[in-house]
Write a structure and sequence with these properties.
- With about 70 residues, this protein is an all-alpha fold.
- The protein has 4 helices and no strands.
- It has helices spanning about 1-10, 15-30, 35-50, 50-65.
- The longest helix has 13 residues, at about 15-30.
- The chain is flat.
- It starts with a helix and ends in a 7-residue tail after the last helix.
Length: about 70
Amino acid sequence: RRMQVKIISLLSLGHSPAVHNVGVHYFAGRGVELDMKKAAKYFAQAAESGFELSLVREAFPVLLFRPRGEL
């Protein structure tokens, strides 16, 4: 419970690593239901804040679920 409050506080402050980690949890289905759209949303938010690792992660859902032959 304390960790949830801390994460929510960090998210509300726009703390890029926290936002990125929420995306990781949605991407992997860790502690939450797997949701690629939510994962991409959080990765994009973190990337916009300058968290470089999110730039890579943001591309995963696009690359994994694109139609064959498209990039």
